Amino acid sequence: MTGVRKGLAKVEVALKWDPSPAGTPANDLDIIAAVYGAADLQREPVQLVHFGRRSPDGTITLNRDSHTGQGFGFDEVMTIELDRMGEDLRRVVVGVVIQNGLAGAGGDAKTFAGIGGTGFRIREGHTDLAQGDFGDVPTATAATVAEFLRDSSGAWSLDPRVRGFDADPEEYTRAMGSVR
């Protein structure tokens, strides 16, 4: 066995946004990770990790959670330990959802276009693997930002791609893995 590590091991996904203007409802964005097993890579995640919910095996941790975007730098941070995941876990989709994104009782829907300063960063150690914003999906209320895939050798790779959705948080968690 050699000392060379294959693929990604431990990554951090960070999310930032500006607070809402004074007198308006808070902007509440959340990072969500859906983990899929070899038997079903798209429909039903075997793990769903977000605020208030953690991965049962401890490989995904939400380190920082914000409900307002009031912070310095990145407001939410999630750590994903890909190298510790069970061999049957083959795909991790990471997304962002606007908690108050859908219109209700005559209100307007909050979309990425209405939230200033949005951005994300994916890094391993001190190396940035991807970064971006939600400018390509301005009318969306949720978006995937990355897909991690395990190949037949067991190595994990990253496909950073922003895909927009117009769904409430519950709908989004059912749909986020369907796009490949």
Secondary structure: elements and pairs:
Elements lengths: L9 E7 L12 E9 L9 E3 L10 E5 L11 E6 L7 E10 L20 E6 L2 E6 L9 E9 L5 E10 L3 H7 L5
Antiparallel strand pairs: 1-5, 1-7, 2-3, 2-6, 4-5, 6-9, 7-8, 9-10
Strand order of the largest sheet: 4-5-1-7-8
Q: Averaging pLDDT over every residue, what do you get?
A: 84
Task: Please state the overall shape, judged from the principal axes of the Cα atoms.
Answer: globular
Q: How large is the radius of gyration?
A: 16 Å
Span of the ends, CA to CA:
34 Å
Structural class: mainly beta
Segments where pLDDT lies below 50 for 5+ residues? 1-5, 102-106
Percent helix, as a range, is under 10%
Please count the helical segments.
1
What's the number of extended β-strand segments?
Answer: 10
Q: List the helices and strands in order.
A: EEEEEEEEEEH
Q: Work out the strand percent.
A: 35-45%
Sheet of most strands: 5 strands, antiparallel
Keywords, separated by commas or semicolons:
39% strand; single chain; five-stranded antiparallel β-sheet; mainly beta; 1 helix; 180 residues; disordered N terminus
